[in-house]
Amino acid sequence: MGLYLNSGLPSGKPAPYMLIFYTIQSNVLCFLFFSCLLLKTLLDIRTRGIKGVTVFLPHFKGAVTLAVAVTFLVYHFVLVPRFVSDSGHTYILLNWQNVLVHYFVPIATVADWLLFDKKLSFRWFDPMFWLLLPLNYFLFVLIRARIGGIIEIVKSPYPYFFIDVDLLGWIEVLKNACILIFFFLLLGYFIYLIDKVGFRRRRPKFGAMQPK
What we know:
By secondary structure, the protein is mainly alpha-helical. It is built from 8 helices and no strands. α2 runs antiparallel to α3, α2 crosses α4 and α3 crosses α8. The protein is globular, with a radius of gyration of 20 Å.
């Protein structure tokens, strides 16, 4: 629903430029992943019955969870304060199309991983592989800014002010990019630690009788 509302289709004015934004790309990634997970679940139900657990690309799901969690964190703690402090902005912070993609989808994705996924599945080097998503996005933004035009909604060829080379210069943008990559890595290892430590399966107090 959030992707549909942000597509421009409800107003009859398609907005393909929205795909440039990290928020939309991370939500598209979630949509594709969970669509595949749903299909895999339905196949498992058909072949094995309703009992059991469906496991689908658990290492990649860590990347999806991290990517969309950053969508929430950057929007809420970086972009919203900037919009609030700018009295001249016309951006509506809390409408359905923003709440769904910046809050509901990230929170639901993290909750799904915390509550339903089998834990102890991540490898120590997985968070480093998860960095491929933000790194590819950063390269995409830089290349698109050189060959594409102004993004009307932000009046810049760059979707976010903190990676706007024209506004900040290369040194400042690369510094911001390094901070963000470090933040991705830190959050990735936080997720890894939760997977390894916080949700270790406890041994049941009253298990089945073991044969002697």
